[in-house]
């Protein structure tokens, strides 16, 4: 019987989004996948996109999304379309028996996501959202630290940020600020990462309440450009996050435990492609006259041989290969994590829409 490592998983891409340039490169760099097909709404656009992004010569180029889904040799699809199109195309991909790597935000609300997940589940298909930093080896190292009862202790607080400055052109034209394409705005784009980071630090224990912290900033079309919120748990853990298209580049996680703390300044996209670092402190106290720390914080550097997005593709293709060529079952943890992230986004949006009132979170 063929093994998944000997037969690369054949990927199709729906659309010519900017983020697909990065993921198409990742599919090529991953050892167990191949960039098999791309489809756009026009053959001309797909052809130009493939040429300008150095797609392999064997990549099939189609003038429609349907053509990619109708190709019987496509094993899996990566969907980087605007969020408002995810429900239609993700469900259709599942109906066509294609495993699904879905760009975030994965849906406009949890009701839409449930339909996508149900389509994948009923067809025995692997689902994963494209939150790349989850697959960096640094992430596992950081989790080992915050899971250590002696070095970190019980989680007390998390603060996460993801912001980046945008141009006037972006604010006028990008799909992320268009109400008919990505109506969640910065909450869906950068807020997704913040909420995922908080849930990750809490070992995916859902908070009980979400509350927006101040009046958010919108564009003229009513799409969120900047917002901040707090999350609380029954055991008094607390988290806050800030996401924005209007602030300096920031990708921070600060997680504070009873005995230690974790700080990382580039969790979404590491400062360097082949290594990443984080800082920890454990059981520290003041030196004499409060003149310093003892012990001092530590810096941990983690190297990786291929970029985090290629590691994501590699993990996804491994899961797909196990289903296609072996006896493996679908790995459900990615669907669960995705749904929890969406549930919190929905609650934060509800708090914003309800005049900053606290909103209970229900899975």
TrEMBL record:
Segments forming domain Gfo/Idh/MocA-like oxidoreductase N-terminal: 9-128
Keywords: Oxidoreductase
UniProt lineage: Eukaryota, Viridiplantae, Streptophyta, Embryophyta, Tracheophyta
Keyword Oxidoreductase applies: yes
The keyword Acyltransferase appears for this protein: no
Domain (GFO/IDH/MocA-like oxidoreductase) ranges: 152-263
Protein name: Putative D-xylose 1-dehydrogenase (NADP(+))
One GO molecular-function entry: D-xylose 1-dehydrogenase (NADP+) activity
InterPro entries: Gfo/Idh/MocA-like_OxRdtase_N, GFO_IDH_MocA-like_dom, NAD(P)-bd_dom_sf
Enzyme superclass (EC): oxidoreductase
This enzyme's EC code(s): 1.1.1.179
Top-level taxon of origin: Eukaryota
Pfam family name, one: GFO_IDH_MocA_C3
Family the entry assigns: Belongs to the Gfo/Idh/MocA family.
